[in-house]
Task: structure prediction
Amino acid sequence: MTTWSLRRRPVRTLGLVLLAVLSFLVLRRFDWHTLVPPWLRHRHLGLQAKGENFMLEDTTFWIFGGSIHYFRVPKEYWKDRLLKMKACGLNTLTTYVPWNLHEPERGKFDFSGNLDLEAFVLMAAEIGLWVILRPGPYICSEIDLGGLPSWLLQDPGMKLRTTYKGFTKAVDLYFDHLMSRVVPLQYKHGGPIIAVQVENEYGSYNKDPAYMPYIKKALEDRGIVELLLTSDNKDGLQKGVVHGVLATINLQSQQELQLLTTFLSSSQEIQPKMVMEYWTGWFDSWGGPHNILDSSEVLDTVSAIIHAGSSINLYMFHGGTNFGFINGAMHFHDYKSDVTSYDYDAVLTEAGDYTAKYGKLRDFFSSLPGAPLLPPPDLLPKMSYEPVIPAFYLSLWDALKYMGEPVKSERPINMENLPVNDGNGQAFGYTLYETTISSSGVLRGHVCDRGQVFVNTVSIGFLDYKTTKIVIPLVQGYTVLRILVENRGRVNYGNNIDDQRKGLIGNLYLDNSPLKNFRIYSLDMKKSFLQRFSIDKWSSIPEAPMFPAFFLGRLSVFPSPSDTFLKLQGWEKGVVFINGQNLGRYWNIGPQETLYLPGAWLGPGDNQVIIFEEVMAGPMVHSIDTPHLGRNQYIN
Result:
């Protein structure tokens, strides 16, 4: 074979030369300049800050942006939401990039399906929207740990959002992968990304003066060439400014606008002003109200921002849903976790429907100079289906035998440090701790975030941040003590993000003596977790079910799938899965009363419904065509 190749090489070389000459003679007849589209041919300068104006190439440019997070919206609905954004009169999409979802385990990246960032950005370009990318690594966003992966917390000395070596090493590896995807999508490479944000609201954290210059350099070293921005609220603006990066502001009221724009004018040379986040509503916490902002106030503030000469981004234009366990939390005085809905009282509802805000803002943007707006797309249909009546049941205690061997440890191990998921620990869900006791007494320990305590299989109460002790009643002989601990969401904003380990933290004490010899079950409730429960594992529902438990039913969809909302009246607290998709948590303390079920995740005919209920089950799950997000409270 080698001899044949050597003999043929002169002939092959002559053929390639002749082909090249022929190609030149033919192709030189074309004017290749005319084949390159004008919008690509003249891309040299990109978005620039020139005096008081943004310039896109040599044209004055106003950023009218809106935030949609691809990871909170089913991929099948991305186009619908983006078309509605374009039809509202906006010209720029902004989105965060959640590190914790894209790198769930060290070095294992997921940009598939609902996490296909590149597809989302390219779809925006196809619709005619520019993109401002907000890649973090910290993003806040009311997402677990502000988008940072929980496996970072395996390091007991971890200092998040600093130049601590353990953190920067992980950021470098993540950015190596992420930026290889982002760089080709930049404006100067023919893509729609016109600006990139450096971290997020760092001024209000500000633990390491070397950190923001490090992130800026990390972006630039990996090929980010577009305009760089920072974004800070009133608490952090003074400390969030970075040399060579345009500062922008986050706010909700006109009073803040005057205060913050005055500061911007004094802290940096004459530069264009931008409100990176104008908060069109607010997020909700379990046990609180559903926060809303009056549509007339939104219109007045948006109008004031633009008439003050500032560009704007509406946060959120469309909020979407905290599917699964991705919601974040706040913990200042009290711990408050975010609800499943990220409706946010935004310009579009959680299900993508129009609001009064949409109509008023569309009228306002259509009054500004420019091309006429596209007609708004039709609404997607909503349906009420027949109720789901669970037919089968599997108690948690019976399910344990299908879990495989538990982790055995002398002392409790927090979720993040459990030897599961190829050494990456457990990120989300529940963890069950078991040990043996032989006496009664006072049980105490540091439980994050909520632990249901069982003597054998009998629930005796809960431990959480407010209830740190519980009395164990009289027991006879050796008794199994169990604590089912739920990670309700890691804090996403504040100075205590380094302390967000979940599960049992440190020793568990009975009358001041540390308990030992634990069996620990990781109940992350991923798709693979539920697949262990084949149909032969289930039994008919008894008259008095034992809790916690899984319930199995079916949602019959005819004639074709449409969006619907599940109302779990009579159920107390748990999680709902449809065809293996985790819709998120429900809890009867409110405010949220319904879970959004996208029609895109349903099929015609029967759809599998699994409910994990912690305390008390209702007789059925209702499917209705209208969401109920709770008692409204106007934001002060």
The longest strand covers residues 310-318. The radius of gyration is 27 Å. Residues 2-27 form the longest helix (26 residues).
